[in-house]
Amino acid sequence: MGLRTEDIRKLWMMLPIFYFSGIAESLNYTAFMALFNQRFGVQYLPYIYIVEAAIMPLEGWLLAKLANRLPKAKMMTTLYLIMMGLLLLNGAVLLGFKLGGIDFRYYYPILFLSSNFVVRQLTLLLWSTAFDLCPTQQAKRLMPVFIASTTTGGITAGLIAHQIGKLLGTEAVYALAPVLMVFGFIFFRKALARYLVPLTLKEDNRLKTQGTSGTAEEEQQPAGYYVKQMLRSPFLLCAIALMTLMPAVYFMIEYQYFTAAESRFPIEGDLTSFYGLITAIQFTICLLLQTVSTRLMNWLGASNMLLAITVIFLGGFGLTALFVNQSLGLVIVSGSYAIFYILLYYIAEPCYQLFFKMMPIGKRDGYRYFAQGVAASGGILIGSLLSLLHSFGLIQLSPLAWVGVVVAAILVVVAWYGRNLYIRELVKSVQSLHADLSDIAGSFIGGIRSSKALSSMLGYLKHPNDYVRELALEVIGKAKDSAFLPQLIGMIGEESSRIRIAVLRAMNLQGATIQDLVQVASFLEDEDPEVRAESVKLISKATHLKSQSHFFIRVKLLDNHPKVVHEGVKALYALESEESYQACDEAIIKMLDNGGEWAVYGCHTVADLKLDSYSAWVLSLLDDHRPAVKVAAARCIGKLEHVDAIPHLLSMVPLADQELRKAILEAFVDMGAKALPALLNGVNHANPFIWNSAVTALAELLDESKLRSELVDRCVSRMLASTQERALPAALQELGMQGLAELANQRCGELHNALVGGAWAVMAKFVDERVVTTLREATQDESDEVRDNALEVLAEGLGDRRLALALLELLKKENGRSSVAMTEPLLILQEAKIWSDDWLRDIAVYALSSLERADMKEDRKFLTMLDKVIFLKQVSLFADLSVDELGLIAGIATEEVHEDLTYLLRRGEKNAAMYLIIEGNVELSNETGIGETVTIGVLGPKQAFGETTALDGSPSSITAQAIFDEVRVLTLQGESLSRLVRLYPEIGIGLLHASSARVRLLENMLLKMA
Fold first, then answer.
1. What's the pLDDT tens digit per position in 538-547?
2. What are the DSSP calls for 806-817, one per residue?
3. DSSP assignment of 500-516, as one string?
4. Exposure of 859 by Cβ count < 10 A (0-12 exposed, 13-18 middle, 19+ buried)?
5. How far is CA 976 from CA 118, 620, 891, 952, 972, in A?
6. What SS3 class is residue 895?
7. Could you tell me where the DSSP H helices lie in 833-973?
8. 0.85 surpassed by pTM
């Protein structure tokens, strides 16, 4: 079933909720319907539905108010308890009636309304619980299992009702429902405590601080806004009509079913037993349908699925109308009712959601809730009012069935019309939602090749909006139909390279002629390398023209862009062109040997084709001075499963930037089980960062049982081991070395975070990654209450009790630490010289050497690596970076000394570096329109300039000159600066602020001159 370890763990917790609740819901529904129909009268069913339709808006308003006043977990628990209490109360009343031999006829409408409230809200609560407790991708995997569990509960309930209804009566069937809800509640509370409470710590605190006076943070549109918008949109009107008429048809068939069943089974126990039997059959069909529903949805698409459902509704009502007064009448109407129920609630409801996917995301829920509210009440009212024709005695049951046929026929027309309106609405929405509309269109249209909706997409290939054409091409491409090839070949001359790429991706060359292939091959000479690469990928798929495809692709091994060569080599291997393997080998050697971007694509090629013969060469690239090459080499080694490289990769972790660390971790995971022995050795490493990488990788690779047996104890021991790191900042503080103390304190915090991060990675495999992420954030929250609540969750033994308590102890030690009084600071410095962490060791050595030079008047001309790190930490641009990251910047920063009046930048000349002033002053100036030089400002230590031109290589718009004396600067080259901005966006924001400040200075200067 494709389930993961965390899925199975969550299923054990949540499946009993769905199973027991499914039984309780079906028992409740079967019993109260039998009691109402027998004791009050099925002819009054339309009246009660009309009352319910009137009550539903008030019900929604009250629940919304309750949700705004209570934390989410408490709200869900309260709602469950309310529903369970209603069933217990009703069960007690019914048993009291039975034991006392009394009856009160007007109690049964109250029973109906309260019990149907439970049916309605319990279903919503279960599905909202599933989506709230499961991340999106996990919810997709588990939802079929949850549905199967609920369905199995329905089958169980049907069998129970079938037997107990005859033996003990309908009251006993009803009284069993709250008992089973109690069993479900036990698991419900555990699931909320484990998965939901940690996710809502911040929200719960916000509710407490706001109290009951809080107002909605976002301004909501009034209901009249949605009414106007829907009246203007034929598509939305059609959607609401479909959502309204489908329940109306269902309620009409339900009335037919209950009326026919009551006339056949006048004894209440027999009627309850029959309802139970139909329920069991109904949910059995539902369970079987769930096994094929996903494939059916992908094949038909939501539009065709809804159309098919309406056709089934029409056929079911047609058969009912024909046979309702005959011997097979009850069988036909019961079968129709069962199938209608399944199709409406388990198939049609998810399809409805696609109607609102095209709405702007900020207003999507408003449209959805308004439409669903109108449709729910309207469907009940229409179905009930039409059923009243029989209740009033105006028409018989058979003519009422023919009325249902007419309504079902209208429903088919609406579904057909809405299906054709969808594409127009999709195109209208494309400008704001083009990023994900192709997936929505594919889900709605489905995979039927002859679909009229799909063919209509061809009309949009000439649309003036590029987003519309791109969407049409994506949807056509998903059909994988070669019939569209002539129209696509006609788009070869498109000006936009993005459209040309989309055209290539939409093409299917299976069955293409040589002439078609020649025309497509013209893309191989496109000026855009992305287009050339895409065309190579496409041509390689024309396997029926293997020799011709090989001819065209072979030439691209000599292309001047590495990505095209990369795709060419892969394509020739895919075509199994053995005669070209030698040429491919030469191309790979060329890529690896050229370095830079070529080497990056060379690593990608070796990784994708798993060419182990190049592993030694790729391994040597780990020592390349270019970070991008290191990252590509690390990922390639992982794909090749070269486990001998693990020690080398681990040794790179402490000085690696975040991108390389992520690549190394991915490499360990890609190696799989082969990497376990080496990684388990890494768990014993003294360096916290190496330990963190090994533990995080093992958490991904080991299953839950092996995590508990092989990793938890090691993690706990490491976290609880006493360390002296925190003594170093206090010792430096006492010696008056403030800058070194701050650096050492930051480094100690980073070591602590590395240990904590490894523990959280393991914890995520025992609980839920989303819960762990939220809980981790809560432990660092500014609010004391949020932090305390998060620690309390850990104290309850979240996931693994030993690991949770060890992590709790470590967090308490960090949060509650106080300054340590040092009696022998020099002794601490001596001990720190042999510690495992390089930075703390270097800080200690630097501090001791500084003390030895205290009496010497020595002016150091150039900064050491540690000097640079201390300086960079004081520059606001880099204040939030880690010590390792500061070290990386210090390693690529060059110190320069410029004499007085030296020009560092000249207006109109290109500049390739950013400068950080260590000592001295730099004057920034510009020329006016009349040739005069005007000073913009004077920069001093810890300020930067030249960053704008260094990033884009453009000519400088200002002149920068050393003044008053020599100036010492750190220089960062433009290529290195660009990568820093990409890896650390906060640096880019800081540079933007600095540039903006100088622009304002220039503007003020110009205003004064004016």
1. 998 888 888 8
2. HHHHHHHHHHT-
3. HHHHHHH---TT--HHH
4. exposed
5. 63, 22, 11, 12, 7
6. strand
7. 838-852, 865-874, 883-892, 947-952
8. no
